[in-house]
Amino acid sequence: MSENVIHQCIGSIPKDIKIVIVDNSNNESFKNEIEKKYNNVRCILSKNNIGMGAGNNYGISEIDTDYGFILNPDVILRKDTIDEIIIASKKIEAFSIISPIMEEENYPNYKLSEGENFKNEKDKPFKVKSVDGFAMLLNISRLNKLDNFGNKKYFDENIFLYLENDDLCKRLIDNNENIYIVPKSKIKHLGAKAVDEKYRYEIELSRNWHWVWSKFYYNKKHHGYLNAYIKVCPIFISALFKMLLYFFINKKKKEIYLFRMLGFLNAVVGKKSFYRPKIND
To answer: Does pLDDT of 120 surpass 60?
Structure first.
């Protein structure tokens, strides 16, 4: 699905940086094409669609450096994105995660602590509560010294899609670790534009299923079952009414809201995030 954008991503990364691609498939032709075209790229096939978090863990386990830059294939770097992160890392006393910032200021890729007011000083790195997972530099050597991180399971592999980055950031903040955004290091995130049109509807169903499942799982893990139920049940009720509304007039919208409901119901009864998009590569 990402083949139409991944070349833009790789092309934006300095050629002297080694890249490990984890492709959630068994596509040998894709692996051969990528490794033949780029001397600095190694492609690993996971054989099955193991999800975002497990894929990230897999990739990190294949490198032996102190730092690992997690990057989704639909992200494009500026020429100085990496350099600015390196400069900032030398000025920050201690950090577990550093992230670049989105070019689109109206779509921030970070969250601040509740009630915190932030005045952007343009070029000064600032602490945040969490960052989006599509572009983040992990201080692996530091994470390995923390409890529950030394096994290289940085991301919770129970989560297939959505909130795996929030979960990682939450556990780090609970450990009094620091997460920073570097305003001078900028990226462009293509987001949904990276999805092939022929897969768009199936991906939309998958997203709605996993969005609700992950939201319930995340809140149950960190705040308890009752808290998760109270927070996520309104989404289920809203989806139920919308599904009934579109039942006879819009089949696709009906199914989207049905999948939201199914994600919630499976999470409530403790089932794993088993749903996988039906895509034939």
So the answer is: no
Q: How far apart are CA 97 and CA 180, in angstroms?
A: 6
Q: What is the 3-state secondary structure (H, E, C) of 230-271?
A: HHHHHHHHHHHHHHHHCCCCCHHHHHHHHHHHHHHHHHHCCC
Largest CA distance in the chain: 60
Calculate Rg over the CA atoms of the chain: 19
Sign of CA dihedral 219, 225, 230, 236: positive
Give the integer Cα–Cα distance in Å for 1 and 200.
Answer: 10
For the purposes of burial, counting CB atoms within 10 Å of the CB of 60, is it exposed (0-12), middle (13-18) or buried (19 or more)? buried
What are the tens digits of pLDDT across the range 4-44? Answer: 689 999 999 999 999 999 988 888 999 999 999 999 999 99
Its pTM stands at: 0.91
Of 216, 210, 208, 203, whose CA–CA distance to 258 is shortest? 208
